[in-house]
Amino acid sequence: MNSATTINIQKFSVHDGPGIRTTVFFKGCPLKCWWCHNPESQNKNHEILYFQERCTACGICLKRCPEKAIEIKDNTVFVDENKCTICGKCTDFCPNNAREYVGRDFTVQELMKEIIKDEAFYDESGGGVTFSGGEPLIYADFLKEVLKACKIRGINTAIDTCGHAKWEEFDKIADDVDLFLYDLKQMNSEKHKKYMGVDNKLILENLKKLSDRGCNIFVRMPIILGVNDDDEHIDKSVCYLSNLNIIQVNLLPYHKMGMDKYKRLKMEYKLSGTEKPSEERLYEISERFKKAGIQVKIGG
User: Contact 140/172 with Cβ under 8 angstroms?
Assistant: First the structure.
């Protein structure tokens, strides 16, 4: 694979692994989590975010669209999805940044140029680069080349993964990854399918295989009130993880920072936005892991 599509490269990140890191967010994901705070990362294709509150219906986007896919009615901008080719030309001249083009393709060489810009910060802080998404394993062949290039330069690497990928994809990259940040969102397979769009069989199998392989693993568990904060899920998680070789569990309390993005992508946000667990409940959950001898941390 000669290129991969990203939605963002975030510099000076401190929540995606040890030290100061550069986090590369890839575009495309096999899951459709109800609370996803990067919904623009779900679709592998390029997209356009539309910020209606910024739009003044000035008509510049209409004039720039080569497909004549945009029209203005009653001071409101409409896009004919059947005509739009996501070329992005409507975003180039918008005076209010009401339209944002999402998706940038990188070759391995181009991405490495971005990564090595901050090598001094990695060295000082014990940081490195984290590949996130979306799901980075969608680009396994591309990722393998980047990971090998990082290894040659001595750059620490982490993979933030939902775990839903063929084992062959994990096998390609595992030896060149310093740390896996592995999501565990729901132990009940039917509930997993409801809230994430797929069951959890492959995810659990891959986690065990990575553990058996001796990989360094942080398990990340988002905690959403009414979705997966129940005792059944927590007890099953504790039981399952007690038998694996993992470094620690990170409990990530729900937040609604991505809600506004959904309407900009004409997507439905299926939660109410009030699903943040209490500090007391997070403490109770963390104590269950501690009693099982599992190192646990609240937060990223």
Answer: yes
Q: Domain count of the chain? A: 2
- List the end-to-end C-alpha distance of the chain, in Å, as a whole number: 31
pTM of the shown model: 0.94
Query: Is there a cis peptide before residue 133, judged by omega within 30 degrees of 0?
Result: no
**267 backbone dihedrals φ, ψ, rounded to 5°:** -115, 155
* Tens of pLDDT, residues 127-139: 999 999 999 999 9
Point out the domain boundary residue: 102, 117, 134: 102
Domain housing 78: 47-102
Q: Are residues 60 and 201 in the same domain?
A: no
Which tens digit of pLDDT belongs to each residue from 57-98?
999 999 999 999 999 999 899 999 999 999 999 999 999 999
Residue labelled with tokens 């694979």: 1
Whether the Cβ atoms of residue 140 and residue 169 lie closer than 8 Å to each other:
yes
